[in-house]
Specification:
With 314 residues, the protein is of the alpha+beta class. The protein is 25% helix and 28% strand.
Length: 314
């Protein structure tokens, strides 16, 4: 087999690899786009994420009085760039002696699997919950600073997902206040869970509840059951459940309000760029191994903590 034929085969494999990347190059897919404010591509090796929180209370202007103006509260955090990637090796002989096109199919499959690299990484950061956000603490925390007197508020629970904890989470988010005591007007729209909590999430967000009724007219699961009854779920349809494969802990769940212009997470996402082998590369000739990689520059970190509530066991 001539080297010319081999070069043609490698070039064809590289074209298939690059073509598979074209559809995701500018915007890597994933559920992160639901809860992340994607602020373009990185413009440097770090980003300062700043927020101005209006603190002015409602005023009533009487005759002859002057308006009172309050300063906006400045919050901010700096997040550093990292390069996320998925990489794969391919033996030179698999390319040279491929007569069925399996190399091109494998590379297309590799791109499909690796296309969620940004989604996976942002979920890693969110679930890890170690980065300090704009108010100086992690995104989910039981001691978010509040007001001038050193008070705190809490968006982290230890409760398992249930009808009761779901309703408590909604109430907690809707009662979240600004620094000046005014409400944020938060209203949860989505519930994120892993595969283990899918049925529970569907129950608390939509399904009516079936009960056994005793002869005394009480709801009970034990003896003396005389009938069955159904209690309507008053929360049905208010929140959309989303099952995420990256949530692998069977107890973790997250409520989010995704109706606002701000989001619970922030990111700058660069265009995907590929790494492909060249037949004349000295390293390739020395190792007889080709290396393919999907790479993306990413700056990411916590956004608005009042828009998220839930349980993390990490």
């Amino acid at each position: 087999m001539s080297i010319v034929n081999f070069e043609d085969k490698l070039a064809a494999a590289n074209r298939a690899y690059s073509a598979a990347l074209d559809s995701i190059r500018e915007q890597p897919p994933g559920t992160y786009t639901l809860f992340t404010l994607v602020d373009g591509a990185p413009g440097g090796t770090s980003a300062n994420v700043g927020y101005l929180d209006p603190t002015s209370p409602l005023g009533v202007l009487g005759r002859g009085e002057s308006k009172v103006f309050s300063d906006a509260l400045a919050l901010g955090a700096t997040y550093d760039m990292e390069v996320v990637y998925k990489a794969h090796r391919l033996d030179r002989r698999d390319v040279e002696h491929d007569t069925s096109g399996r190399v091109a199919r494998m590379l297309s499959s590799f791109v499909a699997d690796a296309s969620l690299l940004v989604d996976e990484r942002i979920w890693d950061l969110l679930l890890g919950n170690t980065l300090a956000g704009v108010d100086g603490v992690s995104l989910l925390n039981d001691a978010h600073p509040y007001g001038e007197a050193g008070a705190t508020w809490d968006n982290l629970t230890t409760d398992a997902l249930s009808h009761a904890s779901f309703r408590a989470g909604i109430a907690a988010m809707r009662n979240t206040k600004r620094y000046d005591g005014r409400p944020f007007a938060v209203n949860p729209t989505h519930l994120f869970v892993g595969p283990d909590l899918e049925s529970t999430a569907l129950e608390v967000t939509g399904a009516d509840r079936a009960f056994n009724v005793t002869s005394a007219g009480a709801f009970d699961g034990g003896a003396s059951v005389v009938a069955a009854a159904v209690q309507a779920n008053v929360m049905a349809g208010r929140v959309t459940p989303v099952v995420v494969p990256w949530i692998t802990d069977a107890q973790e769940w997250l409520l989010m309000d995704l109706s606002k212009s701000s989001k619970p997470f922030y990111a700058q996402v660069g265009a995907i760029f590929e790494q492909m082998p060249d037949v004349n590369d000295s390293v390739v000739r020395r190792s007889d191994v080709f290396e393919y990689a999907i790479n993306c520059d990413l700056i990411a970190g916590p956004g608005a903590p009042q828009l998220i509530y839930g349980r993390l066991d990490s």
